[in-house]
Amino acid sequence: MSPRHLRAGRAVAAATAATVIAGTSHTLAADGPPPVTLLLVAAVLATPIALLLIGRRPSIGRTLITVTAAQAVYHLAFALVGTAGSSGAAPQGRHLHHVTLTLGEGAVATVPDAPMIGAHAVAALLTALLLHHGERMLQALGRGIRTLLAGTRPLVPSLRASIVRIGIVSTAWTVLPRTASGCSSRGPPARVAVL
User: Contact at 8 Å (CB) between 45 and 65?
Assistant: First the structure.
């Protein structure tokens, strides 16, 4: 794989993992699971951002920033759309961890409260650690498999090694000196010729 493919794979993995873990956390904290299309759209929207932030080489810091950005994209999409079963208002007895701020002249903003920000920070840190160590584990596994395969002999010998080479060492035809005569050397065997 080329370095570009590895970088794109890491970006897609970071965006997808962050979105799925954030969706699972919201499912456990809120009134139900988010729509699958919301998860897919958030992962697709977070992937280009992750591609810009992930960097060329694996780094826990860049992975953490990438996961945090992907979670922010998901949280924004979740705040705009909400769950499929909710009407936008918090159901009775449950708190969606958002604080409503009045900005003046009828403008209202909904922002996450401190427990939600803390939960997102912990989830981002755990996700970044899992992705970073998982990538290192896969690299070590790949190196180990390559080392194992490089040290073994093939079970089936190669076709090239089993081909017998035939070569001409000397000239195939030799000229024998003969006396010139009108008779050919072809004829019946000598025993028959004597009779």
Answer: no
CB 66 within 8 A of CB 50: yes
Q: What is the pLDDT of residue 188?
A: 67
- Report pLDDT digits (tens) over 59-105: 889 889 999 999 888 888 877 775 544 444 444 333 455 555 555 66
Per-residue CA distances from 82 to 39, 88, 120 (Å): 11, 7, 17
**Is the whole model's pTM more than 0.85, yes or no?**
no
Mean pLDDT of the chain: 74
CA distances, 100 to each of 59, 77, 89, 109, 185 (Å): 37, 17, 11, 6, 120
| Cα-Cα-Cα-Cα dihedral sign, residues 86, 92, 93, 98 | positive
Burial of residue 154 (number of CB atoms within 10 Å: 0-12, 13-18, 19+): exposed
Specify whether the CB–CB gap between 71 and 124 falls below 8 A: yes
Q: How far apart are the first and last CA of the chain?
A: 85
